[in-house]
Design goal:
This protein has about 180 residues and is mostly helical. Helix content is about 75%, strand content about 0%. Helix 1 packs across helix 2. The radius of gyration is 22 Å and the shape is elongated.
Length: about 180
């Protein structure tokens, strides 16, 4: 449902001329449909909301460089912008995962025998793993303590291997942040 009687084209023209309130109205008008679409793509409401916010922020910041020509199908154009934001996000995530797998993981053994760590280090690692958010704790424990492969973890959790890769990457990132924070 439209939030005012002004058309998308009128609001867009007003925004390009410096009216921030017009952009706010367009944001309110399309935010729900964009979040819904990106939620279907990402499977996560929070990520979808972040991507929509990034989409609107990017458009707002590029106001001076945007064409002042009318956009024929404004809603479609906006959905394309949001889709491109999602694609950029997934590309960045894939690149980060690749860097983790090729640069960080080969340097660190993922299977540590109990006698390789001092008791103090084991206690510290256990404490840090405990500080990681609940959904990722199991993945870290399986990866670090038991050395399971992604395929074994996927079978264990009843998920796809891509899900395991994504969650172990996130788990590693969180664990590294906790280790950095706690020394």
């Amino acid at each position: 449902m439209k939030s005012s009687l002004r058309t998308d084209h009128e609001l867009w023209s007003s925004f390009l001329q410096g009216n921030d309130a017009a952009f706010g109205e367009l944001t309110l008008r399309y935010q729900r449909s964009l979040v819904s679409r990106l939620r279907r793509l990402t499977g996560e409401v929070e990520l979808a909301q972040d991507l929509v916010q990034d989409t609107f922020l990017s458009i707002f910041q590029k106001r001076e460089t945007l064409s002042h020509e009318p956009i024929r199908h404004f809603g479609g154009w906006l959905h394309t912008c949001a889709h491109q934001q999602w694609m950029a996000h997934t590309t960045k995530q894939r690149h980060r995962r690749h860097l983790m797998e090729t640069r960080v993981l080969p340097q660190v053994s993922t299977h540590l025998p109990a006698d390789a760590l001092s008791q103090l280090e084991q206690n510290h690692l256990t404490t840090c793993i405990g500080a990681v958010k609940h959904p990722l704790r199991k993945e870290i424990l399986l990866l670090l303590a038991e050395g399971h492969t992604a395929e074994e973890m996927a079978e264990f959790f009843g998920k796809k291997t891509a899900w395991v890769h994504q969650n172990t990457y996130l788990a590693r990132q969180e664990l590294l942040a906790v280790l950095d924070r706690d020394g």
